[in-house]
Amino acid sequence: MQTRAPHVVGRDREVTAVTGALAATRESRGGAVFLTGEAGIGKSRLARHAAGQAYDAGMRVLKGRGTTIGPMVPFRPIAEALLGLFRGDPPDDSALGPYKPVLGTLIPDWHDHRSTTESVVVLAEAVLRLLASVARKTPCLLVLEDLHEADAETLAVVEYLADNLEDQPVLLLATIRTEPGNALELVHRMVQRGSGSLVELHRLSQDEVGQMTSACLDSELVPAELVDRLWTDSAGNPFVIEELLHGMVSGGLLVAGAHGWQVLGSLKLPVPAAFVRSVAHRTDRLGPQGREVLSIAAVLGHRFPLSVVQKVTGTDDRALLSHLHAGVAAQLVTPDEPAPDWYAFRHPLTADALLAQLTLAERVDLSARTADSIEDLHPGLPGDWCPLVAKLRFDAGSQTQAGLLFAEAGRRALAGGAAESAVALLDRAQDLLHSECGARAEVLDTLLPALADTGDFERAFALDVSDLQGTLRAKLHTRLSRVAYLAGWFTEGVEQVRIARTLLGPDAPDELAAQLDVNSAYLALNIPSADRISSAAGLARQAALAADRAGLPMVACEAWQLLGIIAREQDIDEANACFSKALALADEHQLPIQHVYALVRLAGNDWLRHGSTAALDRTHAQACRVGAITVAHNVDAILALQSVLTGDYAVAAGEIDRCLRTTTRLRFHALTRYLLMTKAVLAAHQGNRTATDDAISEFETVAKSGAQEYPLCFGLARAFCALLEENHGLAMTELDRALDLESQHPTTFHLSGTHGLRVLLGVLDGRFDWPEYTSLTAPSASAMRWNRQFTELAHAVLLGRCGRFDEALEAFERAQEAAAPYPLARHLGLRLVAGSAAGWGDPVAWLRSAEEFFHQATVPAVASACRGLLRQAGVPVQQRRSGTDSVPAQLRGHGVTVREFEVFVLLADRMGNKAIGTRLHISPRTVEKHVASLIAKTGHPDRESLSAYAAALGR
Hints:
Elements: H1 12-25, E1 31-37, H2 43-56, E2 60-65, H3 76-83, H4 99-102, H5 120-135, E3 140-145, H6 152-164, E4 170-177, H7 182-192, E5 197-200, H8 206-217, H9 224-234, H10 238-250, E6 254-257, E7 260-263, H11 273-284, H12 287-300, E8 303-305, H13 306-313, H14 317-329, E9 333-335, E10 342-345, H15 348-356, H16 360-377, H17 385-395, H18 399-415, H19 419-432, H20 437-454, H21 457-462, H22 470-487, H23 490-504, H24 510-525, H25 532-550, H26 553-568, H27 572-588, H28 592-610, H29 614-626, H30 629-645, H31 649-665, H32 669-684, H33 689-702, H34 710-724, H35 728-744, H36 757-764, H37 770-776, H38 785-801, H39 805-819, H40 823-833, H41 843-856, H42 860-872, H43 889-892, H44 898-907, H45 913-920, H46 924-938, H47 943-954
Parallel strand pairs: 1-4, 1-5, 2-3, 3-4
Antiparallel strand pairs: 6-7, 8-10, 9-10
């Protein structure tokens, strides 16, 4: 008879917690609940109870489980759960956008060979979006059992889900044993920060053991000595209680009579020997074939596929199912719900008990036969079969075969984005192949980039490669040079290149020289030196040619992409040619990530040259189709900056905030830096000094020294903020700072003013003349549309000074054409060159246009400057009464006017009357009158006191 409790016993508190979480989830207040406890304590039983409650309430239930089959398999529990969505009508994928191809890693039906491999965080975001999409129609319960058996990548996805399910109608319910390990540590961290709740299951009390015994035996009449013995021997563990009861009943120690259950003989049995003995007794009753079926199943692990067991035993369908049904009746195995045609032992201890009955020779034989059968059934060992057979070969004593299979499983895990699992598998391979130099070198060649992906750079450099010689060792030092580049250890990378070149000698084969040269090129570009650009370009071109000869398209693509980046500043046509070459190679050899990178760089060049976003829009669509999430968000960031430059500030603010939330959550640090820089530019182009400084401070907290976006914080943000404050000297200082930063660290961004605004201001203040202008505008970066509007204005001013008025006007018109998409920059240019346009321009019309624009944009300093210049030209100027809102309330209460407030702001810097007059385009005498009025209105005794008040109010 069955001796399992038909319902949950002694778990009222735990059931209440789970029931409450399910009710909250149905109201779109999801989250995570973690059931913890020792083996056999009832975690799975409570999870099944929760699943039943959810199902009865109309919720969608998805189930997955960690597995002891072979080594940990990346994402196995998550994939298993999500596949449950496809047993019937597949989910609506319309809301997933670019995240659908990313899920191809977990969902075979959605796999696309063109899709790129993204980080685990991106995959976790994709899982979150899929669950949210499903749950919008029907609230969802995701049950993940045995997370203590899960891989590092699954745990990373679980952590991400737990952190982001709060506002979703999705509940994550996970079971974990209270055994030291990564899973339990993660659960405690998540609970501490409020990302989930912990429900710890304790052992049953003696009264609860009595209740469970009555439930198992379906009788209220049970002998007291039975409950006492069960309480003593089980220590309140529900699984052990059921196993002991089953052993007593099947062994004839406990029988049902007319007056209830009766004990015959002594109940004393040692534990766990009692359990092992119980399992042995039940398997013996299944006969030799039944015992063999379960022994093979135990060799496979806690869970096992019927097809493999049938192949090893050679039994037909009818006989196999007969043995399995007998195993189910004996409470040894149970159908595995999430996976059709798979069975599982009722508890991992059951499999352990069966293995304990095998001799070493029997286990070796069964492991070898099972491995052979799997290889026959699944040629090439796709998916999870490779690590499983690796483990079986190891158990069979075939260390070299096992090592090679672990290495292959590690390579596949790394290619699938599961770097931590790859490291674990490759470590096992390295240990098993320690005496096989060639095979071990290949393992290390994969292990090094895997360690780089996990950020464990120090361990990568601590690996001992001294026992390897010649080419084998040179390949690893080449790989280490790449790891050093990724870590930002550029000097160490150069040293690794030197060692590799020494080992290879002057006649290095192309297949090794190509990778070494491309690594060296990236390193050279990041180490300050007078010839770093030319050196990097020479190495990259050398690498491209060698890769072409050796048939290494990936290396060739990397080299051509780098050549395009280097060429962009000096010759954008050459840059496009390089990117087009990389694109052609990527298409020819089906390299999706290189294809998308080349596309986005070509589109970026089109944006820089023409100011058009059409190509970027097309690239964004392509990136979404192949699941290149990083590239898609990269395009989003560029479009946000475009919105700032074109004056769509409200749109830009929304795009920046939306993208920042995503890039911060996905840990896209480079894109986060770019967006924070764009946020600073947005504030600066609206003349908001405080918001500009705050955004740059935020940027500096997340950016490393030498970040490529840093010069733009000065040349594209702070310099413009200074110009909107009519502080041209400060603007030039900020532009000089941007130039200094660019000279120290290479940059692929060319909008910091070095090739545009700085040229114009330098010409206007007399610092630059024709020689400097010619030199500064020679690079193609000066012809990029944003820069071109300023360089053409500078050209017009220089031509006008030479009396070449017609040519000056033509240059001015070209500047206006370039500036058409950029209203702020266009009107700022009009204000800047108006004073230098005598004889060839129309400064009055320009100033009127600029004054109207900046007045409407509430930039009072520039609007006031335009009015001052118009007055100096003898032109009547309309009195502007608006701008009162810019005056602080406490000053408005004193009757301070807009003009007086402009003077008041400059007093904070202790400026004299002449300096203030120059800034505001009014006479020193007028300034003095305003100061006197301010002293009278604010009640301060003198100018020094007023200036101190202005400084304090401005803080």
